[in-house]
Amino acid sequence: MDPVHDLLELSARREDRANASFEQRVEVTLRNDATAEHQDVVRATRLERIEHRREKRIVCAGHDRQADRIHVLLKGCDGDHVGGLMEPGVDHLEACIPQRASDHLGPAVVAVEAWLCDEDADLWAVHPRFLVQTRAQCQQPGWSGCYPCSMLWPLSVRGLRRDVPDVRPEVEAWCRAEGIARPSDVLIADFYVPMAAWVAEHVDERTLVLGLNGAQGTGKSTLARLLKVLLERLYGLRVAIVSLDDLYLTAAERARRAESIHPLLATRGVPGTHDVDLGVRTIRALREGKPLALPRFDKARDDRAPVSSWPRWEGRCDVLIFEGWCVGARAQRPHELEHAVNGFERLEDSSGDWRWYVNRELGGAYQTLFAEIDLLVTMLPPDFARVVEWREAQEARLRECSQGSETMTPTAVKRFIKHFERLTRFMWDEMPGRADAVIRLGDDHSPVEVDLGDG
């Protein structure tokens, strides 16, 4: 940049090749990833900035894993592409030039937080989103080569603690113990940590009940357990988890309903196969600080676990994560029950008695249970085919661990999922409009978008 041109408010000049080293001159001329490959090129040329604007990303970190700076000229005039540079993903704006009425800066320019200084040595402590990806991660298939510009969880910087510790070691240790893949650094920083902050913001003296809804295989149970780790580590909260699956009726109770009401009620899962009163009593006991045993269901035996094996809980509960495939669901209207949604219903519920009973149960006692929820989060997969695919992947892992005993075949999984298709599709249409947060999942199972409700 030429200081004379800057003072006179003329357009900025091109990079001065005479003052650059030979290596710099070649890279600047060719625009060959100068900032990413060489530490001595500290500013991107104007053409490079425009190019990155089109890609809606910023320059990736260099070999030494230090974030490259991109300086943005706020005060511009004829020839400066100021309007094109102002993007929502700008990480740092130097608040040293006052905005004038003639600048016409668009609404994409946000207020600058005073503590967002680019001299902070610990970028994670300033804001988790500035976490630098390792070069190995950047070179993995599907990686674009640049760091994404927008935080996945739509939370203002003000909502995050400034002293957020680096939780990656705890997350890695937890994933290793659980035998699951560790989420990427980007997901930890842009999704999991801000989600924990969002939940923590809603905690007060009364136990917060977080309802986590998601179809089979979407990963709600894993999200619940990881969220518990982060809430305890970052905010010192006491977090309990209860699954809707833990409230299933015993095998004997379901057999009696199958005999007296409809044979399909022998299969656990749909409304009408849970002990709703047990769920209500559990939540209210946690809120009252009473000692209790948290219910558990043994899916391998398809029966309730012995009460003696239920984990004990004593003392206060700051957050209860209540997760399940139809948590927070509402009943369908009568006319929506008239026609079968798949071949399974046409063959095994031709009279409609099963779906009418399930819907009646959902609209009755289950609403008392779901009324205990303070925050409702729903996870949406791309389509129903992914639900079947992901649920089968879960079952395949179970088969590996149990040598095939007490597990379902791929054909059995497909039939099992058909029990839930009606209500699942209805929830996808109805729930996003009233949920406090909607997490949309990509084909690779990772969250790709989060929408927060107005409330």
Shape type: globular
How many helix segments? 18
Q: What's the helix-strand series?
A: HHHHHHHHHEHEHHEEEEEHHHEHHHEE
Unreliable runs, pLDDT <50, ≥5 residues? 1-97, 107-140, 142-150
Mean pLDDT: 75
Report the radius of gyration as a whole number of Å: 27 Å
Query: Given this structure, which CATH class of the largest domain is correct?
Result: Alpha Beta
Tell how many strands the DSSP assignment holds. Answer: 10
Helical percent range?
25-40%
Largest sheet data = 6 strands, mixed
The CATH topology of the largest domain is what? Rossmann fold
First-last Cα distance: 47 Å
CATH architecture of the largest domain: 3-Layer(aba) Sandwich
Query: Domains counted in the coordinates: how many?
Result: 2
Strand order of the largest sheet: 2-7-1-8-9-10
Fourth CATH level, the homologous superfamily of the largest domain: P-loop containing nucleotide triphosphate hydrolases
- Identify the quaternary structure here: single chain
Give the DSSP E fraction (strand runs of 2 or more residues): 5-15%
Task: Give the helices and strands, then pairings.
Elements: H1 3-7, H2 22-30, H3 34-37, H4 46-55, H5 82-85, H6 123-126, H7 135-138, H8 168-178, H9 185-201, E1 208-214, H10 220-235, E2 239-243, H11 251-260, H12 276-287, E3 292-293, E4 297-298, E5 303-304, E6 312-313, E7 319-324, H13 343-348, H14 353-363, H15 365-370, E8 375-380, H16 384-402, H17 410-418, H18 421-430, E9 437-441, E10 447-452
Parallel strand pairs: 1-7, 1-8, 2-7, 8-9
Antiparallel strand pairs: 3-6, 4-5, 9-10
